[in-house]
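## Example record

The block below lists the input lines for one assembly entry, exactly as stored, with component labels intact.
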Amino acid sequence: MRALLARDLMLAIRAGGGFGLGLAFFLIVTVLVPFGVGPQTDLLSRIAPGILWIGALLACLLSLDRILALDWEDGSLDLLATAPLPMEGIVSVKALAHWITTGLPLVLAAPVLGVLLSLPLPAYQWVVISLAVGTPALSVIGTFGAALTVGIKRGGLLMSLLVLPLYVPTLIFGAEVARRGAEGLTVQAPLLLLAGISFGVIALLPFASAAVLRINLR
Amino acid sequence: MVLTVRDLAVTRGGLAILEGVSFELNAGEALVLRGPNGVGKTTLLRSIAGLQPPEIGTVTGAEDQIAYAAHSDGLKAMLSVTENLTFWASVFGLSDIEHAIEAFDLADLRNRMAGTLSAGQKRRLGLARLMVTGRPIWVLDEPTVSLDVASVALFADAVRGHLHNGGSALMATHIDLGLAEARVLDLTPFKAAPRTRQMDEAFL
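Predicted C-alpha coordinates for the full assembly:
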Protein backbone atom coordinates (compact mmCIF):
# COMPACT_ATOMS: atom_id res chain seq x y z
CA MET A 1 0.00 0.00 0.00
CA ARG A 2 2.93 2.26 0.74
CA ALA A 3 4.15 1.58 -2.79
CA LEU A 4 0.79 2.64 -4.19
CA LEU A 5 0.83 5.85 -2.18
CA ALA A 6 4.40 6.61 -3.24
CA ARG A 7 3.53 5.95 -6.87
CA ASP A 8 0.44 8.17 -6.78
CA LEU A 9 2.36 11.01 -5.18
CA MET A 10 5.21 10.63 -7.66
CA LEU A 11 2.76 10.64 -10.57
CA ALA A 12 1.07 13.73 -9.19
CA ILE A 13 4.23 15.81 -9.10
CA ARG A 14 5.56 14.63 -12.47
CA ALA A 15 4.57 16.49 -15.62
CA GLY A 16 0.85 16.28 -16.32
CA GLY A 17 0.14 14.94 -12.85
CA GLY A 18 -2.22 17.73 -11.88
CA PHE A 19 -0.58 18.50 -8.55
CA GLY A 20 -1.08 22.26 -8.79
CA LEU A 21 -4.51 22.07 -10.41
CA GLY A 22 -6.61 22.46 -7.28
CA LEU A 23 -4.22 24.98 -5.78
CA ALA A 24 -4.22 27.14 -8.91
CA PHE A 25 -8.02 27.09 -8.99
CA PHE A 26 -8.17 28.08 -5.32
CA LEU A 27 -5.76 30.92 -6.02
CA ILE A 28 -7.82 32.13 -8.96
CA VAL A 29 -11.07 32.13 -6.96
CA THR A 30 -9.62 34.04 -4.03
CA VAL A 31 -7.86 36.53 -6.27
CA LEU A 32 -10.96 37.21 -8.36
CA VAL A 33 -13.57 37.46 -5.61
CA PRO A 34 -12.26 40.81 -4.23
CA PHE A 35 -12.50 42.25 -7.76
CA GLY A 36 -16.03 40.97 -8.10
CA VAL A 37 -17.18 42.26 -4.70
CA GLY A 38 -15.59 45.66 -5.11
CA PRO A 39 -13.76 47.88 -2.60
CA GLN A 40 -15.84 47.08 0.47
CA THR A 41 -13.42 45.68 3.00
CA ASP A 42 -15.93 44.96 5.76
CA LEU A 43 -18.24 43.05 3.39
CA LEU A 44 -15.28 41.13 2.05
CA SER A 45 -13.98 40.22 5.48
CA ARG A 46 -17.47 39.06 6.48
CA ILE A 47 -17.76 36.66 3.52
CA ALA A 48 -14.08 35.65 3.49
CA PRO A 49 -14.42 32.41 5.55
CA GLY A 50 -17.25 31.22 3.32
CA ILE A 51 -15.39 32.12 0.12
CA LEU A 52 -12.31 30.25 1.29
CA TRP A 53 -14.40 27.20 2.06
CA ILE A 54 -16.28 27.28 -1.25
CA GLY A 55 -13.03 27.80 -3.13
CA ALA A 56 -11.43 24.84 -1.37
CA LEU A 57 -14.46 22.66 -2.02
CA LEU A 58 -14.60 23.48 -5.74
CA ALA A 59 -10.84 23.04 -6.05
CA CYS A 60 -11.23 19.56 -4.56
CA LEU A 61 -14.10 18.78 -6.90
CA LEU A 62 -12.02 19.77 -9.90
CA SER A 63 -9.44 17.07 -9.37
CA LEU A 64 -11.75 14.23 -8.32
CA ASP A 65 -12.12 12.52 -11.67
CA ARG A 66 -8.38 11.92 -11.79
CA ILE A 67 -8.45 9.76 -8.66
CA LEU A 68 -9.54 6.55 -10.33
CA ALA A 69 -10.21 7.35 -13.99
CA LEU A 70 -6.55 7.39 -15.00
CA ASP A 71 -5.92 4.00 -13.43
CA TRP A 72 -9.04 2.68 -15.07
CA GLU A 73 -7.97 3.85 -18.52
CA ASP A 74 -4.55 2.27 -18.50
CA GLY A 75 -5.77 -0.96 -16.94
CA SER A 76 -3.92 -0.53 -13.63
CA LEU A 77 -7.16 -0.74 -11.69
CA ASP A 78 -7.90 -4.25 -12.99
CA LEU A 79 -4.39 -5.30 -12.11
CA LEU A 80 -4.58 -3.70 -8.66
CA ALA A 81 -7.85 -5.52 -8.07
CA THR A 82 -6.10 -8.85 -8.69
CA ALA A 83 -3.13 -7.82 -6.52
CA PRO A 84 -2.96 -8.87 -2.87
CA LEU A 85 -4.19 -5.45 -1.70
CA PRO A 86 -7.74 -5.28 -0.34
CA MET A 87 -9.95 -3.03 -2.44
CA GLU A 88 -10.83 -1.01 0.68
CA GLY A 89 -7.12 -0.36 1.14
CA ILE A 90 -6.71 0.71 -2.48
CA VAL A 91 -9.51 3.29 -2.29
CA SER A 92 -8.28 4.55 1.08
CA VAL A 93 -4.77 5.04 -0.28
CA LYS A 94 -6.20 6.78 -3.33
CA ALA A 95 -8.19 9.14 -1.10
CA LEU A 96 -5.13 9.79 1.05
CA ALA A 97 -3.01 10.54 -2.01
CA HIS A 98 -5.71 12.91 -3.24
CA TRP A 99 -5.79 14.67 0.13
CA ILE A 100 -2.01 15.04 0.24
CA THR A 101 -1.86 16.44 -3.30
CA THR A 102 -5.00 18.60 -3.11
CA GLY A 103 -6.40 19.04 0.39
CA LEU A 104 -3.16 19.64 2.24
CA PRO A 105 -1.88 22.36 -0.14
CA LEU A 106 -5.26 24.09 0.20
CA VAL A 107 -5.00 24.06 3.99
CA LEU A 108 -1.52 25.52 3.81
CA ALA A 109 -2.44 28.12 1.19
CA ALA A 110 -5.64 29.30 2.90
CA PRO A 111 -4.00 31.67 5.46
CA VAL A 112 -1.86 33.25 2.73
CA LEU A 113 -4.83 33.76 0.46
CA GLY A 114 -6.94 34.95 3.40
CA VAL A 115 -4.94 38.16 3.27
CA LEU A 116 -6.40 38.88 -0.17
CA LEU A 117 -9.91 38.58 1.27
CA SER A 118 -9.02 40.71 4.34
CA LEU A 119 -9.87 37.80 6.59
CA PRO A 120 -10.31 39.01 10.20
CA LEU A 121 -7.32 38.19 12.36
CA PRO A 122 -8.98 35.75 14.82
CA ALA A 123 -10.37 33.77 11.86
CA TYR A 124 -7.01 32.62 10.46
CA GLN A 125 -6.46 29.78 12.87
CA TRP A 126 -10.08 28.60 12.58
CA VAL A 127 -10.02 28.63 8.78
CA VAL A 128 -6.88 26.50 8.83
CA ILE A 129 -8.22 24.18 11.51
CA SER A 130 -11.62 23.76 9.87
CA LEU A 131 -10.03 23.08 6.47
CA ALA A 132 -7.54 20.63 8.01
CA VAL A 133 -10.41 18.75 9.67
CA GLY A 134 -12.84 19.02 6.76
CA THR A 135 -10.78 18.42 3.61
CA PRO A 136 -10.10 14.72 4.40
CA ALA A 137 -13.87 14.23 4.25
CA LEU A 138 -13.93 15.96 0.84
CA SER A 139 -11.28 13.57 -0.48
CA VAL A 140 -12.94 10.46 0.89
CA ILE A 141 -16.42 11.43 -0.36
CA GLY A 142 -14.86 12.38 -3.69
CA THR A 143 -13.20 8.99 -3.99
CA PHE A 144 -16.61 7.41 -3.47
CA GLY A 145 -18.00 9.57 -6.29
CA ALA A 146 -15.06 8.66 -8.50
CA ALA A 147 -15.62 4.97 -7.79
CA LEU A 148 -19.31 5.31 -8.70
CA THR A 149 -18.54 6.84 -12.09
CA VAL A 150 -15.29 5.09 -12.92
CA GLY A 151 -16.39 3.20 -16.01
CA ILE A 152 -18.31 6.07 -17.53
CA LYS A 153 -16.76 8.06 -20.35
CA ARG A 154 -16.48 11.67 -19.24
CA GLY A 155 -18.34 10.93 -16.05
CA GLY A 156 -17.18 14.20 -14.53
CA LEU A 157 -20.56 15.89 -14.78
CA LEU A 158 -22.42 12.95 -13.26
CA MET A 159 -19.83 12.71 -10.54
CA SER A 160 -20.15 16.40 -9.66
CA LEU A 161 -23.92 16.02 -9.39
CA LEU A 162 -23.54 12.97 -7.16
CA VAL A 163 -20.82 14.41 -4.97
CA LEU A 164 -22.04 17.99 -4.47
CA PRO A 165 -24.98 17.15 -2.17
CA LEU A 166 -22.70 14.91 -0.13
CA TYR A 167 -20.31 17.83 0.26
CA VAL A 168 -22.99 20.14 1.67
CA PRO A 169 -22.81 19.08 5.36
CA THR A 170 -19.03 19.41 5.37
CA LEU A 171 -19.31 22.85 3.79
CA ILE A 172 -21.98 24.03 6.24
CA PHE A 173 -20.12 23.01 9.36
CA GLY A 174 -16.68 23.93 8.00
CA ALA A 175 -17.78 27.42 7.01
CA GLU A 176 -19.65 27.75 10.30
CA VAL A 177 -16.47 27.00 12.28
CA ALA A 178 -14.59 29.63 10.27
CA ARG A 179 -17.40 32.23 10.58
CA ARG A 180 -17.84 31.77 14.33
CA GLY A 181 -14.08 31.89 14.74
CA ALA A 182 -13.99 35.16 12.83
CA GLU A 183 -16.65 36.65 15.10
CA GLY A 184 -14.96 35.40 18.24
CA LEU A 185 -17.79 33.04 19.17
CA THR A 186 -17.38 29.53 20.50
CA VAL A 187 -16.70 27.02 17.70
CA GLN A 188 -16.95 23.82 19.66
CA ALA A 189 -20.26 22.48 18.36
CA PRO A 190 -19.70 22.93 14.60
CA LEU A 191 -16.08 21.81 14.91
CA LEU A 192 -17.12 18.59 16.65
CA LEU A 193 -19.78 17.97 14.03
CA LEU A 194 -17.26 18.61 11.26
CA ALA A 195 -14.81 16.21 12.85
CA GLY A 196 -17.63 13.73 13.28
CA ILE A 197 -18.43 13.89 9.57
CA SER A 198 -14.76 13.45 8.66
CA PHE A 199 -14.15 10.49 10.95
CA GLY A 200 -17.47 8.94 9.96
CA VAL A 201 -16.80 9.04 6.23
CA ILE A 202 -13.17 7.94 6.68
CA ALA A 203 -14.40 4.93 8.65
CA LEU A 204 -17.35 3.95 6.48
CA LEU A 205 -17.07 5.21 2.92
CA PRO A 206 -14.01 3.13 1.86
CA PHE A 207 -16.20 0.04 2.19
CA ALA A 208 -18.87 1.60 -0.01
CA SER A 209 -16.26 2.80 -2.52
CA ALA A 210 -14.68 -0.66 -2.66
CA ALA A 211 -18.07 -2.28 -3.17
CA VAL A 212 -19.09 -0.02 -6.07
CA LEU A 213 -15.64 -0.34 -7.59
CA ARG A 214 -15.93 -4.13 -7.58
CA ILE A 215 -19.26 -3.84 -9.37
CA ASN A 216 -17.89 -1.29 -11.85
CA LEU A 217 -14.93 -3.51 -12.70
CA ARG A 218 -17.12 -6.40 -13.85
CA MET B 1 -3.72 -29.56 -9.61
CA VAL B 2 -3.46 -25.81 -9.14
CA LEU B 3 -6.57 -24.49 -10.77
CA THR B 4 -9.89 -26.25 -11.21
CA VAL B 5 -12.74 -24.76 -13.16
CA ARG B 6 -16.06 -26.58 -12.81
CA ASP B 7 -19.08 -26.06 -14.99
CA LEU B 8 -18.48 -22.33 -15.31
CA ALA B 9 -21.00 -20.02 -17.01
CA VAL B 10 -20.14 -16.40 -17.69
CA THR B 11 -22.11 -13.43 -18.93
CA ARG B 12 -21.11 -10.27 -20.73
CA GLY B 13 -23.36 -7.25 -20.72
CA GLY B 14 -26.13 -9.34 -19.18
CA LEU B 15 -26.02 -11.99 -21.93
CA ALA B 16 -24.89 -15.52 -21.21
CA ILE B 17 -22.01 -16.28 -23.56
CA LEU B 18 -20.31 -19.40 -22.24
CA GLU B 19 -21.65 -22.24 -20.15
CA GLY B 20 -20.44 -25.57 -18.85
CA VAL B 21 -16.75 -24.75 -19.12
CA SER B 22 -14.67 -27.20 -17.09
CA PHE B 23 -10.95 -27.77 -17.08
CA GLU B 24 -8.04 -28.35 -14.82
CA LEU B 25 -4.64 -26.80 -14.84
CA ASN B 26 -1.68 -28.52 -13.21
CA ALA B 27 1.63 -27.15 -12.07
CA GLY B 28 4.03 -26.83 -14.96
CA GLU B 29 1.24 -26.88 -17.50
CA ALA B 30 0.07 -24.37 -20.08
CA LEU B 31 -3.45 -24.20 -21.45
CA VAL B 32 -4.28 -22.16 -24.53
CA LEU B 33 -7.88 -21.00 -25.00
CA ARG B 34 -9.02 -20.60 -28.56
CA GLY B 35 -12.21 -19.55 -30.22
CA PRO B 36 -13.54 -16.92 -32.59
CA ASN B 37 -13.83 -13.26 -31.58
CA GLY B 38 -16.61 -12.63 -29.12
CA VAL B 39 -16.86 -16.20 -27.92
CA GLY B 40 -16.00 -15.07 -24.40
CA LYS B 41 -12.29 -15.70 -23.90
CA THR B 42 -11.70 -12.37 -22.16
CA THR B 43 -14.82 -12.71 -20.02
CA LEU B 44 -13.83 -16.22 -18.99
CA LEU B 45 -10.33 -15.07 -18.05
CA ARG B 46 -11.72 -12.11 -16.06
CA SER B 47 -13.99 -14.49 -14.17
CA ILE B 48 -11.08 -16.78 -13.37
CA ALA B 49 -8.97 -13.83 -12.26
CA GLY B 50 -11.77 -12.87 -9.90
CA LEU B 51 -12.67 -9.57 -11.56
CA GLN B 52 -16.23 -10.65 -12.17
CA PRO B 53 -18.19 -13.30 -10.37
CA PRO B 54 -19.17 -16.35 -12.44
CA GLU B 55 -22.86 -16.84 -13.11
CA ILE B 56 -22.78 -20.52 -12.23
CA GLY B 57 -19.94 -22.87 -11.44
CA THR B 58 -16.81 -22.63 -9.37
CA VAL B 59 -13.21 -21.66 -9.77
CA THR B 60 -10.98 -23.20 -7.12
CA GLY B 61 -7.35 -22.49 -6.45
CA ALA B 62 -7.41 -19.01 -7.99
CA GLU B 63 -7.43 -16.99 -4.78
CA ASP B 64 -4.23 -14.91 -4.54
CA GLN B 65 -2.49 -17.20 -7.01
CA ILE B 66 -3.11 -15.37 -10.26
CA ALA B 67 -1.08 -12.82 -12.13
CA TYR B 68 -3.46 -11.33 -14.66
CA ALA B 69 -2.45 -9.53 -17.84
CA ALA B 70 -5.13 -7.99 -20.01
CA HIS B 71 -5.26 -5.97 -23.21
CA SER B 72 -3.95 -2.88 -21.43
CA ASP B 73 -0.69 -3.19 -19.59
CA GLY B 74 -1.34 -0.96 -16.58
CA LEU B 75 1.76 1.12 -17.19
CA LYS B 76 2.16 4.73 -16.15
CA ALA B 77 3.48 6.88 -18.97
CA MET B 78 5.33 9.21 -16.64
CA LEU B 79 7.21 6.48 -14.78
CA SER B 80 10.35 4.84 -16.14
CA VAL B 81 10.56 1.16 -17.00
CA THR B 82 12.36 0.41 -13.74
CA GLU B 83 9.88 2.43 -11.68
CA ASN B 84 6.91 0.71 -13.25
CA LEU B 85 8.33 -2.74 -12.55
CA THR B 86 9.49 -1.82 -9.05
CA PHE B 87 6.01 -0.55 -8.24
CA TRP B 88 4.33 -3.77 -9.28
CA ALA B 89 6.95 -5.87 -7.54
CA SER B 90 6.40 -4.03 -4.26
CA VAL B 91 2.61 -4.27 -4.61
CA PHE B 92 3.11 -8.03 -4.64
CA GLY B 93 5.59 -7.78 -1.77
CA LEU B 94 8.73 -8.50 -3.78
CA SER B 95 11.64 -6.36 -4.85
CA ASP B 96 13.74 -8.19 -7.43
CA ILE B 97 13.05 -7.00 -10.97
CA GLU B 98 16.36 -7.81 -12.67
CA HIS B 99 15.34 -11.25 -13.92
CA ALA B 100 12.26 -9.74 -15.56
CA ILE B 101 14.23 -6.96 -17.24
CA GLU B 102 16.67 -9.53 -18.54
CA ALA B 103 14.04 -12.00 -19.72
CA PHE B 104 12.25 -9.41 -21.81
CA ASP B 105 15.38 -7.64 -23.03
CA LEU B 106 14.49 -4.32 -21.41
CA ALA B 107 17.96 -3.47 -20.10
CA ASP B 108 18.57 -0.77 -22.70
CA LEU B 109 15.21 0.83 -21.96
CA ARG B 110 15.55 0.78 -18.18
CA ASN B 111 15.47 4.55 -17.65
CA ARG B 112 13.10 5.47 -20.46
CA MET B 113 9.67 6.75 -19.56
CA ALA B 114 7.04 4.12 -20.33
CA GLY B 115 5.13 6.74 -22.33
CA THR B 116 7.94 7.00 -24.87
CA LEU B 117 8.12 3.27 -25.58
CA SER B 118 6.74 1.73 -28.75
CA ALA B 119 3.65 -0.46 -28.57
CA GLY B 120 5.70 -3.64 -28.69
CA GLN B 121 8.11 -2.42 -26.05
CA LYS B 122 5.21 -1.48 -23.79
CA ARG B 123 3.78 -4.94 -24.21
CA ARG B 124 7.12 -6.48 -23.32
CA LEU B 125 7.18 -4.33 -20.18
CA GLY B 126 3.60 -5.35 -19.39
CA LEU B 127 4.55 -9.01 -19.70
CA ALA B 128 7.70 -8.50 -17.65
CA ARG B 129 5.34 -7.35 -14.91
CA LEU B 130 4.09 -10.94 -14.63
CA MET B 131 7.54 -12.15 -13.66
CA VAL B 132 7.87 -9.70 -10.76
CA THR B 133 4.56 -10.73 -9.18
CA GLY B 134 5.86 -14.10 -8.05
CA ARG B 135 2.40 -15.58 -8.62
CA PRO B 136 2.25 -19.21 -9.83
CA ILE B 137 -0.66 -18.95 -12.28
CA TRP B 138 -0.36 -16.56 -15.22
CA VAL B 139 -3.68 -15.64 -16.78
CA LEU B 140 -2.96 -13.92 -20.06
CA ASP B 141 -5.37 -12.30 -22.45
CA GLU B 142 -3.88 -12.01 -25.93
CA PRO B 143 -0.34 -11.65 -24.62
CA THR B 144 1.32 -11.39 -28.02
CA VAL B 145 -0.57 -8.39 -29.42
CA SER B 146 1.90 -5.98 -31.11
CA LEU B 147 4.90 -8.23 -30.41
CA ASP B 148 7.32 -9.03 -33.25
CA VAL B 149 8.62 -12.54 -33.93
CA ALA B 150 11.72 -12.10 -31.76
CA SER B 151 9.65 -10.78 -28.84
CA VAL B 152 7.16 -13.61 -29.17
CA ALA B 153 10.12 -15.97 -28.86
CA LEU B 154 11.28 -14.09 -25.73
CA PHE B 155 7.79 -14.39 -24.33
CA ALA B 156 7.59 -18.12 -25.14
CA ASP B 157 10.92 -18.60 -23.37
CA ALA B 158 9.62 -16.71 -20.34
CA VAL B 159 6.50 -18.89 -20.24
CA ARG B 160 8.61 -22.02 -20.64
CA GLY B 161 10.86 -20.91 -17.77
CA HIS B 162 7.80 -20.18 -15.63
CA LEU B 163 6.35 -23.64 -16.35
CA HIS B 164 9.71 -25.22 -15.65
CA ASN B 165 9.74 -23.59 -12.21
CA GLY B 166 6.42 -25.22 -11.38
CA GLY B 167 4.18 -22.35 -12.48
CA SER B 168 1.31 -22.66 -14.88
CA ALA B 169 -0.19 -20.47 -17.57
CA LEU B 170 -3.66 -19.99 -18.97
CA MET B 171 -3.81 -17.85 -22.08
CA ALA B 172 -6.14 -16.77 -24.81
CA THR B 173 -4.25 -16.36 -28.04
CA HIS B 174 -4.68 -16.80 -31.76
CA ILE B 175 -1.10 -17.32 -32.77
CA ASP B 176 1.14 -20.32 -32.32
CA LEU B 177 3.64 -19.61 -29.56
CA GLY B 178 5.80 -22.60 -30.37
CA LEU B 179 4.96 -24.08 -27.00
CA ALA B 180 4.73 -27.72 -28.00
CA GLU B 181 3.65 -28.81 -24.52
CA ALA B 182 0.68 -26.45 -24.29
CA ARG B 183 -2.76 -28.01 -24.33
CA VAL B 184 -5.40 -26.31 -26.41
CA LEU B 185 -9.02 -25.80 -25.33
CA ASP B 186 -11.44 -24.65 -27.99
CA LEU B 187 -14.27 -22.65 -26.42
CA THR B 188 -16.65 -22.86 -29.39
CA PRO B 189 -18.53 -25.94 -28.07
CA PHE B 190 -19.25 -24.14 -24.79
CA LYS B 191 -21.11 -21.27 -26.43
CA ALA B 192 -24.25 -20.55 -24.45
CA ALA B 193 -27.66 -20.94 -26.04
CA PRO B 194 -29.13 -17.49 -26.68
CA ARG B 195 -31.45 -16.39 -23.91
CA THR B 196 -32.04 -13.22 -21.98
CA ARG B 197 -31.32 -12.89 -18.32
CA GLN B 198 -33.21 -11.01 -15.67
CA MET B 199 -31.69 -7.54 -15.58
CA ASP B 200 -32.59 -6.65 -11.99
CA GLU B 201 -29.12 -7.43 -10.68
CA ALA B 202 -27.80 -3.98 -11.40
CA PHE B 203 -30.37 -2.45 -9.10
CA LEU B 204 -29.72 -4.61 -6.09
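DSSP finds nine helices and no strands in chain A. The first helix of chain A runs from residue 2 to 13.
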